[in-house]
């Protein structure tokens, strides 16, 4: 069974019979010369426009204003000589889906049209109704039909509207989710508002939006396992990009002093409530900037996005996140030392760190060196407790092979992870532009890859050649757009992605 054939749980038993009935109605429409899917229905007003123009009508007031409206039938009540239905039309980034009542009276449409309505229209169908705008005796703004036509016959039944859809159904059948659940429509609008806000913030600072390749011959820019494919035209193996970084930096070498891209990246890794194999990343690079100027930019991006969604205080089960409060800076080594009650420095040995992991019942890979252990211990022990915005900084070099060595501390790099609500939301660097040190870092990564590390970056000679032409000092930012939506809405990553990748359903 493919995804399109998956019914919701409540419909499963009745689906075959319901589809037979609906398919028969489709054939009846087509056989009588009434197309079940006409190309145009002559709509004159959206449902929202009708409410905006005639919303002042009082109970029982009628007009002679004739409109043609169209939408999906989400409620229907058929009585003897008078039928009622509620139509729902589409929505945009600012407005919820419009809803409006339509009424079909025997006196207005005639017996044949009324009988056809009762026999041919089901919940989920799209219909067009032409008639006068009135207010019912109960004060419900309505269109009193003089005629109607089918706009699109739904062959599958809608889910029961008063029952909550299971999460699996919501993400697997998002087209149904959007139809029946206002929260799903809200999230789609919120995502559009956030991405628009991000662009506005960057554009106002003279950043140039560019596009870089998704298919790449060498994977790099992050420590992640790539997806592999093959380009037949060149008979060469390719990967889907795991980051946007390396090509954006090529643009910086060419003189584009402020660039950004919002695009999909692909990482062939685990799937859980915070990770997806395909997700949206913002990366931005600023010439003559560093990790501090990039931190200020990141804060502005997030605060501005919060403003378009209604506020800078975010309620969570663990407390209120205050985006107007202090955005603290916390060094990895001091933060971990305070948590475990033992001073940890770049000189702390791997054996000592493994003992600390054992003391906290953490399982670590025996092959991890001291730098990797520090990074993992911090992520497990400290990061989940950082509710308020915190720039976790002064990492060991293993954390970010593309970051500059720290100007004030040996064996550290100028890089931070922004933790809000116990989760990484973004990362920033003072970017490494020295081609000699960069070659050393990428060579070490390449050797790790050759030794079997699937997440290690490859040696990218073209990128190194670009750096050898000279890149300006710069700061760089990576921000997960999906995780930003998770912060604002409190939902898992699958809910923030309109059509997330899901495990295939198996028949039987």
Automatic annotation (TrEMBL):
Keywords: Aminoacyl-tRNA synthetase, ATP-binding, Cytoplasm, Ligase, Magnesium, Metal-binding, Nucleotide-binding, Protein biosynthesis
Cofactor info, note text: Binds 3 Mg(2+) ions per subunit.
Residue ranges of domain Aminoacyl-transfer RNA synthetases class-II family profile in the record: 191-504
Pfam families documented for this protein: tRNA-synt_2 (PF00152), tRNA_anti-codon (PF01336)
GO annotation, cellular component aspect: cytosol
Residues annotated to bind Mg(2+) 1: 417, 424
Reactions listed under catalytic activity: tRNA(Lys) + L-lysine + ATP = L-lysyl-tRNA(Lys) + AMP + diphosphate
InterPro entries: Aa-tRNA-synt_II, aa-tRNA-synth_II, aa-tRNA-synth_II/BPL/LPL, Lys-tRNA-ligase_II, Lys-tRNA-ligase_II_N, Lys-tRNA-synth_II_C, NA-bd_OB-fold, NA-bd_OB_tRNA
GO biological process: lysyl-tRNA aminoacylation
A GO MF label: ATP binding
Main location: cytoplasm
Location relative to the cell: Cytoplasm
Cofactor(s), names only, from the UniProt record: Mg(2+)
Binding site for Mg(2+) 2: 424
Broad enzyme group: ligase
EC id: 6.1.1.6
PANTHER family: LYSINE--TRNA LIGASE, CHLOROPLASTIC_MITOCHONDRIAL (PTHR42918:SF15), LYSYL-TRNA SYNTHETASE (PTHR42918)
Protein family per UniProt: Belongs to the class-II aminoacyl-tRNA synthetase family.
HAMAP family to which the protein is assigned, alphabetical: Lys_tRNA_synth_class2
Assembly information from the UniProt record: Homodimer.
Record protein name field: Lysine--tRNA ligase
Organism: Naumannella halotolerans
Gene: lysS
């Amino acid at each position: 069974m493919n995804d399109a054939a998956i019914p919701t749980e409540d419909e499963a038993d009745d689906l075959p019979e319901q589809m037979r009935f609906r398919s028969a109605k489709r054939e009846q429409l087509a056989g009588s010369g009434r197309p079940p899917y006409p190309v145009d229905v002559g709509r004159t007003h959206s449902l929202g426009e009708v409410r905006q123009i005639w919303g002042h009508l009082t109970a029982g007031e009628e007009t002679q204003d004739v409109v043609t409206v169209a939408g999906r039938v989400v409620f229907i009540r058929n009585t003897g000589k008078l039928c009622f239905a509620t139509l729902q039309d589409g929505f945009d980034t600012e407005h919820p889906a419009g809803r409006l009542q339509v009424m079909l009276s025997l006196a207005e449409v005639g017996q044949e049209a009324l009988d056809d309505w009762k026999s041919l229209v089901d919940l989920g169908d799209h219909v067009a109704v032409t008639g006068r705008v009135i207010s019912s005796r109960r004060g419900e703004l309505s269109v009193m039909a003089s005629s109607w036509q089918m706009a699109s016959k739904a062959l599958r039944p809608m889910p029961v509207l008063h029952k909550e859809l299971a999460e699996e159904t919501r993400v697997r059948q998002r087209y149904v989710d959007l139809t029946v659940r206002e929260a799903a429509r809200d999230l789609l609008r919120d995502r559009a508002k956030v991405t628009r806000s991000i662009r506005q913030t960057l554009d106002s600072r003279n950043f140039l939006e560019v596009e870089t390749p998704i298919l790449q011959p060498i994977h790099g820019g992050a420590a992640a396992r790539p997806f592999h494919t093959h380009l037949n035209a060149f008979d060469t193996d390719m990967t889907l990009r795991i980051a946007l970084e390396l090509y954006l930096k090529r643009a910086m070498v060419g003189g584009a002093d402020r660039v950004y891209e919002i695009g999909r990246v692909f990482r062939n890794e685990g799937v859980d409530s915070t990770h997806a194999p395909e997700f949206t990343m913002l990366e931005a690079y600023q010439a003559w900037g560093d990790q501090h100027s990039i931190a200020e930019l990141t804060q502005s991006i997030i605060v501005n996005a919060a403003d378009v969604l209604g506020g800078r205080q975010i309620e969570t089960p663990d407390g209120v996140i205050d985006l107007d409060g202090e955005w603290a800076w916390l060094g990895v080594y001091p933060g971990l030392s305070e948590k475990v009650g033992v001073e940890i420095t770049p000189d702390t040995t791997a054996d000592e760190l493994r003992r600390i992991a054992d003391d906290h019942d953490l399982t670590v890979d025996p092959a991890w060196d001291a730098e990797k252990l520090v990074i993992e211990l911090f992520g497990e022990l400290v990061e989940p407790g950082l509710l308020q915005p915190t720039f976790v900084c002064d990492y060991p070099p293993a954390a970010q092979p593309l970051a500059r060595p720290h100007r004030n501390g040996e064996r550290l790099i100028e890089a931070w992870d922004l933790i809000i609500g116990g989760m990484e939301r973004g990362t920033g660097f003072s970017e490494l532009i020295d081609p000699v040190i960069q070659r050393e870092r990428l060579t070490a990564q390449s050797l790790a890859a050759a030794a079997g590390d699937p997440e290690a970056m490859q040696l990218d000679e073209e990128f190194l050649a670009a750096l050898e032409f000279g890149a300006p000092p710069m700061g760089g930012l990576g921000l997960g757009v999906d995780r930003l939506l998770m912060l604002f809405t409190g939902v898992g990553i699958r809910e923030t992605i309109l059509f997330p990748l899901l495990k295939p359903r198996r028949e039987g």
